[in-house]
């Protein structure tokens, strides 16, 4: 039996428990705070110096391969503080669920995919030289992972409105797609090469760790569709309509011959002990000889 890729990742994390960095998200968030404060006092030069840009890597600024992990996403103080608390909750919850090894592997794979996305953007977009890629896509994938494991968890939108994690995740994915679809055609050729690779990288990262769940979901859909189209599947409404048209009734008592057409207020039931589908009225459902 072939193993799915997420099974291999689980096996690797299980066999290498020391691979993980305990409380990894805490170190990432501390780095976010440090770089955010440096940006305030340097006019954003810290992010420009530490963010991921493949063009800068070609100039041998190799420290960016590590430092881009700590570059914050939000620029406004309010949203930055909110993101700190949010990712602190998500990261520690997911690490408690997965273990340090798998959680670290999740961020490592996300960082590698983000790096590959920066390469695609560099050769695809003329603006990539000044565009800095952060781990925002990996953070968004972390939220999708949380919503998959805890779909019914209640999250407070703007600290007020309770929303289940699965609906908030679907809405977030919709916003991600909408940001791409709603691009102005005049800027599409410039912005699409910058936004799309990082978005695809985050989705691939999610798919790698939840491949079995995704495959089971689509198998369920295909199985339902196949069952509905099968010749052995009875369409109850269609069969009822045809029976009424051909015979003039739907239910008929096997003892006294009453039909639902002649007695519309009568209650008809099928007997589970009879060998076959035999219908009886309320008078004979408990008063008849079972057919063997």
Q: What average pLDDT do the residues reach?
A: 80
Determine the oligomeric state from the structure. Answer: single chain
What is the structural class?
mainly alpha
Q: How many domain units?
A: 2
Number of helices, counting only DSSP H or I runs of 4 residues or more: 12
* Rg, Å, rounded: 30 Å
CATH architecture name of the largest domain: Up-down Bundle
Query: What is the CATH level 1 assignment of the largest domain?
Result: Mainly Alpha
Main beta sheet strand tally, sense and closure: 2 strands, antiparallel
CATH topology of the largest domain: Rhomboid-like fold
What coarse outline follows from CA principal-axis ratios?
Answer: elongated
Percent helix: 55-70%
Kindly report how far apart the N and C termini lie.
45 Å
| Strand fraction | under 5%
Number of strands: 4
CATH superfamily of the largest domain, by name, is: Rhomboid-like
Order of helices and strands: HHHHHHHHEEHHHHEE
Low-confidence stretches: none
In which order are the strands of the major sheet placed? 1-2
């Amino acid at each position: 039996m072939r193993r799915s890729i997420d099974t291999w990742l689980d096996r690797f994390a299980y066999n290498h428990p020391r691979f993980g960095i305990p409380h990894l998200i805490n170190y990432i968030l501390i780095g976010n705070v440090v770089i955010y404060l440096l940006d305030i006092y340097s006019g954003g030069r810290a992010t420009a110096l530490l963010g991921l840009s493949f063009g800068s890597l070609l100039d041998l600024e190799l420290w960016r391969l590590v430092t881009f992990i700590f570059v914050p996403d939000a620029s406004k103080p309010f949203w930055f503080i909110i993101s700190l608390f949010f990712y602190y909750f998500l990261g520690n919850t997911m690490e408690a669920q997965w273990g340090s090894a798998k959680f670290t592997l999740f961020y490592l794979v996300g960082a590698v995919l983000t790096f590959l996305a920066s390469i695609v953007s560099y050769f695809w977009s003329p603006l990539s030289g000044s565009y800095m890629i952060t781990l925002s896509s990996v953070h968004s994938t972390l939220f999708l992972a949380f919503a998959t494991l805890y779909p019914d968890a209640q999250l407070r939108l703007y600290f007020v409105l309770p929303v289940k994690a699965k609906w908030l995740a679907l809405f977030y994915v919709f916003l991600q797609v909408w940001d791409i679809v709603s691009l102005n055609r005049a800027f599409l050729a410039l912005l699409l090469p910058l936004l799309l690779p990082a978005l695809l990288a985050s989705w691939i990262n999610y798919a790698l760790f939840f491949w079995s769940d995704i495959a089971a979901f689509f198998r369920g859909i295909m199985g339902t569709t196949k069952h509905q189209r099968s010749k052995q599947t009875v369409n109850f409404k269609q069969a009822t309509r045809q029976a009424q048209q051909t015979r003039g009734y739907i239910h008929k008592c096997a003892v006294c011959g009453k039909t639902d057409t002649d007695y519309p207020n009568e209650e008809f039931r099928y007997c589970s002990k009879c060998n076959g589908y035999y219908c009886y009225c309320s008078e004979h459902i408990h008063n008849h000889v079972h057919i063997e």
